[in-house]
Amino acid sequence: MGIRKLKPTTPGQRHKVIGAFDKITASTPEKSLVVGKKSTGGRNNTGKMTMRYIGGGHKRRYRLIDFKRNKDGVPATVKSIEYDPNRSSRIALLYYADGAKSYIIAPNGLEVGQTVISGAEVAPEVGNSLPMANIPVGTIIHNIELRPGQGAKLVRSAGNFAQLTSREGDYVIVRMPSGETRKILAACKATVGSVGNSDHALEKSGKAGRSRWLGRRPHNRGVVMNPVDHPMGGGEGRASGGHPRSRKGLYSKGLKTRAPKKHSSKYIIERRKK
Fold this sequence. Notes:
CATH class of the largest domain: Mainly Beta
CATH superfamily of the largest domain: Nucleic acid-binding proteins
Radius of gyration: 22 Å
Helix content: under 10%
Order of helices and strands: EHEEEEEEEEEEEEEEEHE
Structural class: mainly beta
Shape: globular
Largest sheet: 7 strands, antiparallel
């Protein structure tokens, strides 16, 4: 999966770097695995705006992704690699031997026609999903569960991967993409390999219009507002605004936001790098 840098024929093209669609093999999604997706425009159930700078954007259809991979022992063939507007990674359409179809996050190196399988006794090969108790130490993994059978919650975005570093009783030690090292139950499933579309991090939109297509409205900084509108507003000339705060006056940088008594803190061996 590469990237395309365009010639500067217009101001919007000058800095635009977008992902290439050369690995994508299907232009329309599987109809049985698609549902409608409603956009909120940043409003809550009463119609009040609770999140600013959200609205508009291209209409999307949600692809139902199989994060549980619970069809153990049934081989599946990769039918196509597809684009998904709801996530940074690409998705792969699987045709199971028993006739079922499902989408999974496409790992790096997965090709059309390849066979993948899930289960406790399967080989730790790219695209296969198995409990971490059966994955060799040092293996690169993604789509990691936090509770057995819950479905993958961690390491799902483009280019990400974690590494299974060691075992400790009923737990495995996993190094996360953030640099955090933590314990996870060995009965939890993970998928072998890293998430595909790793060039996503190199993309540049090139123009404001591309942000509007994604549903992001213009975002104005607190520093340029008046004192009545924001704690960092006001001042003569281009005043910096003092200590960074939110619109409600809470410090936005430096304050710890993690709950001090969060139950999962005991599973974290080493915190992420600052």
